[in-house]
Amino acid sequence: MSEKACTVCHLITTGNICPRCKTPTLSDDFSGMVIIFDPQGSAIAKAMNIKEKGRYALKVR
Ligand SMILES: [Zn+2]
User: Fold this and answer.
1) How far is the centre of ligand 1, averaged over its atoms, from the C-alpha of 3 (Å)?
2) For domain 4-60, which architecture applies?
3) Dist CA 36 CA 25 (whole Å)
4) FRET label pair with 52: which of 12, 21, 45, 61, CA 20 to 30 Å apart?
């Protein structure tokens, strides 16, 4: 199964729609991956406006 990244919220998923924001606009052309365990305490999460735990792509094209 190939992983894709949501072009809206950058969440990485193996499904056909983003489980977080339900958008079907996913891209397999992404780079970088961050795993957010603690959205409240993470500077990266704040910078990317992430409020939920999960794996996110840094860049999605
Ligand atoms: Zn999304």
Assistant:
1) 13
2) Single Sheet (2.20)
3) 22
4) 61
Domain boundaries, the chain: 4-60
- State pLDDT tens for residues 8-45: 999 999 999 999 999 999 999 999 999 999 999 999 99
- Please give the distance, rounded to the nearest whole angstrom, from the Cα atom of residue 45 to the centre of ligand 1: 14
60: burial class by Cβ within 10 Å (0-12, 13-18, 19+)?
A: buried
CA Rg value for the chain: 11
Cα 41 to averaged position of ligand 1 atoms, centre (Å) = 21
